[in-house]
Structure formats: structure tokens, C-alpha cells
Request: fold
Amino acid sequence: MALAAALPALAQEADGQVQADAAAAAGAAPAAEEDAERLRRLGIVTVTARRREESLQDAPVAITAFSGEGLEDYAVTRFQDLSTLVPTMVAGKAASGSSASIFLRGVGSTALSAGFDQSVSFIIDGMPMSRGREISLAQYDIERVEVLKGPQALFYGKNTTGGLISVVTKSPTDEFEASAKTGYGFEAREIYGEGIISGPLTDSLRARLAVRLSESDGAFTNTAAASYTDPLGMTRSPVASRRGGGETASGRLTLAYEPNDMFDLEFKAGITKVEDGGPTDVLERICGSGRTTPASANGVPPSPNADCRIDGRSDSSRLPPEVASANYRYARDGAMYAKFDSSFAVLTGNLDFDKLGVSSITSFYQFEQTDLNNVSGEAYPASFSQLADFSQFSQELRFQTRYDSPLNFMFGAFFANSEFTFNTDAYIFPVPFDPLNGTYVTFKRDNGFEGDALSFFVEGTFDISDQWEFSGGARWSQEERDSYQRSLPAHIAFAAAFPGNISLEDSFKDENISPQATLRWKPSANVSVYGAYKEGFKTGGYNISQALTPLATVEAGQYDSETAKGFEAGVRSLLFNDSLTLNATVYDYTYENLQVQVFDPVSVSLIADNAGELETKGIEIDFNWVPRELSGLSVRGAFAYNDAKYQNYIGQCYGGQTVAQGCNQVNVGGVFQSQDYSGRRPPKAPETAGRLGASYEFPVFGDLTASVSADASYTGKYNFTDTLRPDAVQDSFTRIDAAARLMGRDNRWELSLIGRNLTEEFVVTSANDIPFSGGIGTGTTTGVTADMSAFVENPREIYLELAVRF
Reply:
């Protein structure tokens, strides 16, 4: 519609239409191409945030969208790279549980509990994913990415509270095309390549194949000694001099069948294999309470190669082979690693009965990850191994009416069945070999769940007039989950603390109705104003990551469902002769029973709980300016202010927090256990964030063109621990990305130099206490805080890339 509105012929009076059409015929195609390019540079893409195709400027939702070309501009190939593009998003890998930490507007789920669904979930080609490990999936050959903010109940299968990231990969083309890309990252010594081939196989069948391969050494330095002798006299050594590297191989096949105008079918299937040094390969140590020397752990002195700074340097060594090979599941040869294998298949069908459209999305998703992690460096083995094996089948059926009347409906149903196995072994005390059980391992657990999700949804849209539209509906959801935990015999020395043969089982069932209503006003073709009330729901369940001790109970592992409700309003505008988009959104949401997680380094226990309330309110503004007077120039920017605060929440103290420091709630046996979080900002919730950038494309000589671009992204300070430790604050930072490109005729080839995080900011996304390095005296007058293991985003990277299109 935007392209049609831009054509001069449509502005003519009816009696001059024929002449205008004739006059414009010769230049219609170049004009359309120019307008399409202008829309792309303005950031106006077609989105499906409401399960219907509409312009980003018309969609009455809080959304940030990127075209695939926009992501390629800065070599964005991982989900966590989006955090530099979306203000208030904080995302990164983690070691335990879900292996991911994803927050948006201060709302998210930390990685500690493997049983949690993510508050910010993923949708890839209509397939819902909510485990968090999807952060490891390689992203390439992308049509667009839509980041929807706030509760999302109606349009994407599984209900969610904090938002979702929807990825749409490219479909087969009507004409043959092929491309290849290769690049090299200088800082991480990364080499990568992509290949794509697409086109028709018959008159009704098209196909597309895309692959990506990458290998890197890592951009972080390993300071571990060439040989280190532990307290048992066993030797440890580093795997490599660098950290953060790995290998990725991924492929995706798409088949599109369209025999007629009424029916089409698209099948997408893909596999991804990732092997790297594991999440703890990017850990760095933060010493507690401002100490400048790492703490001892259980009397074991710290490594002289560890420091207390976030500087890209840390000590990482393999476990002794004797330990790894002695009934230590998934430990392999003792080197820290993560091996992630994923596969999926999505079958999407559409049937058009003129007045009724029917859509079906059938999907299967599976991953298996094994890993070995050490959170304390080379001196002390605070290590654990994991098996995470997940499979999910889902089916969504959706109907949309297309009557000529003002009132139309969308309705349907969603079902998903999932199974999850999460087993873990831990080696956290350096004690002699146990000949009875043949192991050094401290404790062993088998955990998992099986769940069913069923929901029905309906929305009615009423065109009140040419300018006013009202839509309203609701999703009814029912979630069932059967969870279990079983401890296995481990080292005999810990039979009293972590005995084997403990078995706990839990059955959870909950249902919810999440309504939604939106009123949109379009006073002109280029201005849209909306207001909406929304609710969201995320199932509760059982914490399959809690420690199994003689005191462990089913009740201690249970947590309630999380709900969200509130309002948002926004304005979308295209101004100044279609040269400027200016958009703003305000929001106010309350989250009840927010699911939170805490790690207790003394009991080595992962605690799941519910916060009373979390209130988030703020404003988000973005713009894109493509001045007609300066051909080739585009300027863009975004700003977000987010006021997030806990309310009515008494929760866990951090390890070593004294009474004077606020650990003064819930006295048990003369020792306080909890602190008051009310009125405090939650973790990973920067108050302000923004981004400002520009691009300029210009002819060089002959058929050659060039472009330069630069963007600066700012993120305000935030706390990166769940217990809000005062010594765990990421200071505000600014990252600069830049790129320069040289392009041949018709963009047949392109040579790019891309820089990410040129200011080399070392950014912490999350951190947990290191076991037995402090964290004692909690709730007393003489507490000692523990050191922390912090997950750090990639430092500076510079890529040289060559792309060829056929």
C-alpha cells in the first residue's frame, strides 16, 4: 500500500487517470524500485506481528523490526547480537539451567532453572521455542526479525509475558538466484562462509537451500598456567591460549508448493551443530566487595593467574583426566566444552476460500546439548556437567474471515507436547577417589519433565470507520507439566549431604484467560495512533534444578505461574514528503508472581521463587530520516526510558549479606534469611538506552558504488545479579559499530569491512557466586561475600567479508 500511495498516478483526479497511467508507464518500474529502496532505508518492512501482513508503520504493537539486509550490515548472526540493536535488551549465554539470559525492558528469566519457560521467547518461522538454548542457533539468510515487546497472548501459539523474538527466514524465489559469502574476523580469528541457492523446480514447486559454516579461536585470552597441580596432586592444563572460540555448521532446506491461487504449502527443515568451549569459556572473575585478590575456596588458594577485573583475561583449565574418566557423566576428556545439536521441521499450509482463510503450522523441534563447565578457574574445581535433551511437537490451526462487512474474526487453537531431560553431575570438592562408587563426583542428578500446552484464541476486528479500527479478543490457555528429580549415588564422602536415591515428583496444572483490546486511529494515510490493553501468561511448574539433600521437598521446588497486565499506546508517522518516520510508544505493565531464581553458593542450591510484583513503565522513541535532498544518506536513532521497580517482594539475601546491608527479613533461629526488594530496580533493567547512526551510499566510478555507516549504542548501568548485589553493577557504556562497503554493478559482488564494538567494551550480562569462595555469615553482623563468575559479551571484532551474487 505504501508503494501504491507513492505513485504519482494515484494522486490524479479520476478524469485524468488514463492519461496519468500512460505517462507513467515508461518510468513506473524505476520509480517502484526507488520507492522500495527508500522504504528499506526508512526501516519500513512488512511485519506479521498480528498474524497478517501489514506495514511496520500500521501495526498497532510495540515492535522493533529489522530486515535481513539490515542485520547483514553489521554481521549479526547470533540472537545475543540483537542486544546492541534493541535498547533495553540484555542477552547472553549462561552456564546452567537454560544456558541463556534474555531480558527486555527489565523482564526476563535468568538461566539457573532448567524448568523455567523464558519470559522472552523465540518464534522461528511460526515455531514456538521457549527453552532459552535457542540463543545458540546460527542466524543467516533472514527475511526479517521482529522483536515484540510486552505481553504477547493472541498471535503466536504459546502465551508469553515479557515479549518475543520472531525470526522469518527467506522463502524460495520465483527466479533462480545464488550467492556465496565468506569472511574473516581478525580478533577472534574466525573464518566463516555462507551459501544460498534458490529458484523454481517446476511451475508449482520452488526450493531454497542455505548453509553456514564458521570456526574461530576466540577473542578472549586464557591466562592459565601450562601446568597446574591441584591439592590432590593431579595436574591441570589449559585447552588453548584463547577462550570463546568454537565451530558451527548449519543448513536449512525450504520447499514451497503452490499449485493454484487457493492453496500453498511450505516446508522448512534445518539442522545446526555447535561445538565450543562452553558457556564458562567466556567467564571472568569479579572479586567480592571490591577485593583486589581472588578469595580462597575451601582452603584452596586462588590461582596466581586469576585477577579481579573484567578485561578479557581469565584462567581456564581442563579437569584432571583421572577425575573426568571416573564415572563423571558427559565430562569427556576433562576439557570445558559444549556440544549443541538441533533440528527442526515446520510445515505451513494456507487455504483461501475467498471469504475465509485457513492456516496450519505443524512443527517438530529437538535439541541435545552436553557440556562441561567450571565457574572458578584453574585453582578450584567448581565444575558441573549437563545433558539437556528436549523435543517438542506443536500444532497451530488458525482461521481468518474476509467478509466485506466491517466485522471480521480470527480464531483457532494451539497444542504442544514437550519432553525434557536434564541430567547433571558436579565435582565441587577436591577429595580423594572413592573406590566404592568409582568417582570423584560430589553429586549426581537425573531431572526432567513432560508437558502439554493447549489453548484456544479468538479476536474480532471491527472497522468503525475509514479512520477507526477496534480489535479485541482473548486466549484461553491450559498448561500441564509432570516433573521429576532423582539423585544417584556419588562420592561416599558426601552421602550425608547429597545422598543417592532421593526421588521427588510433581504434577502441575494451571489455566488462564488473557484478554487483549486495541483501538487504532488513522487520521491520515501516514499517521497511525493506537492504545491497547494486554495481558500475558507464563506457566508455573517445578524447579528441576534444585539441590537434592535430605531436606529437599517437592514444595520447595514449586513456583507459581507468572502473569502480566497493563496498557500501551503509540503513534506511528511518516512525515515530510515520506522522508522521516517518527514513532513513539508508552507503556505501563504490572507483572504478578514474576518467576525469579537465585543461586545459593553455600548449599550449592538453585532456588526458584515468585516476586510479588514488578512494575515497568516507560517510553520508547525511534526515527529514520532519508532526506530527499541528499541522495544516499540515511540517519536513524532510538531512545528508551524504562522505570522498573519491584513491589511487595521479600526474597533471598545474597550470600554474605549482613543485617546492616539489608538482610533483615524472615528470622529463622536467630539468623535472617531474606531482604526487601520493594521499590528497587530489578536486574538487567537499564533505566535509559539509545542508539544513533547514519549511512551514506555514493557512486565511486563506473559501475562501482560505496557505502559507509556508523552507529553508537548507549546502555545505562544495571545490576547483573538476581540478588542485586551492590558490587555487581555494569556501568553505563557506549559501543560503536561501523562498516564500509564497495559494491559492483547491480550488487553482484560486495566487499565489506565491518567493525563491531570498536570501543571494546567488556559488558557483563549476568553473574553468579562462586561456591565456597565466601558467601558466609548471611543474615548476621559479620558476613563475607563470595567472588562472582561473570559472563561477558564479545569484545571488539573486525570482519573482512566478500559476497558474490549470481
In short: The radius of gyration is 27 Å. The domain at 57-805 is CATH 2.40.170.20 (Maltoporin; Chain A). The first helix runs from residue 2 to 6. The helical segments are 2-6, 17-24, 28-41, 68-72, 321-324, 554-557.
